[in-house]
Amino acid sequence: MKNFFASQQTIKRVADLTNMKQSADGTATYLQRRTDVIFDKMIEYKRKGFKLNIPFAKWRPSKRAIFI
C-alpha cells in the first residue's frame, strides 16, 4: 500500500508541474502578443511623425521570439 500512495503523490506532482508549464506558456504567448501590438503602435507613431510614404510592411523587421 505504501508504494501505491507514493505513486499517487508522484502523479499529483507531475500534474502540478504540467499545470505550471501550461500557465507559463500562456503567459509567454500573451506577452508576445502585447509586444507585437506595442511594437506596431511605435512604428506607426514614428511613421506619422516623419510623414513617410513607406509601406508599413517594409518598415517592420522580422519578429523576434520572447524567451522567459
Assign an overall shape: rod-shaped
Order of helices and strands: HH
Portion in beta strands: under 5%
- H/I helix tally: 2
In angstroms, what separates the terminal alpha carbons?
41 Å
Number of domains: 1
Query: What is the alpha-carbon Rg in Å?
Result: 22 Å
Question: What is the averaged pLDDT score?
Answer: 75
SS-based class: mainly alpha
Poorly predicted segments? none
Give the helices and strands, then pairings.
Blueprint: H1 2-50, H2 56-59
Report on the structure:
The protein has 68 residues and is mostly helical. It has one domain. It is 78% helix and 0% strand. It has 2 helices and no strands. The protein has helices spanning 2-50, 56-59. The mean pLDDT is 75.
Could you give a quick summary of the protein structure above?
The protein is mainly α. It contains 2 helices and no strands.
Features:
68 residues; 2 helices; mainly alpha
